[in-house]
Amino acid sequence: MFRFTIRELVLLTLVVAMGVGWFVDRRVFVAAKKTAEWKLEMLATLIEETPGYGVSHDRARIRLTQGTTTKTQWVGGSIERVPQTVSPLP
Length: 90
Known about the structure:
Blueprint: H1 6-49, E1 53-57, E2 61-66, E3 69-74, E4 79-82
Antiparallel strand pairs: 1-2, 2-3, 3-4
């Protein structure tokens, strides 16, 4: 019959808990990513249906166009505005 010490049982519990925690964290991350992508697609659809506006996006940035004015939002957080306009985009 197998004999396990308390130290081995604690180590086994720790390894299993880390594995379960990682698995749960990945599931939450993937679900949040899918939700964010869906929201981006829905927002792009709504904006594109508005006359005079256009939206394009890829993995690195989101670009909103109103007439000849373009605003780009980088996913990392910095904003590049080309050119400046008097009326702000929504």
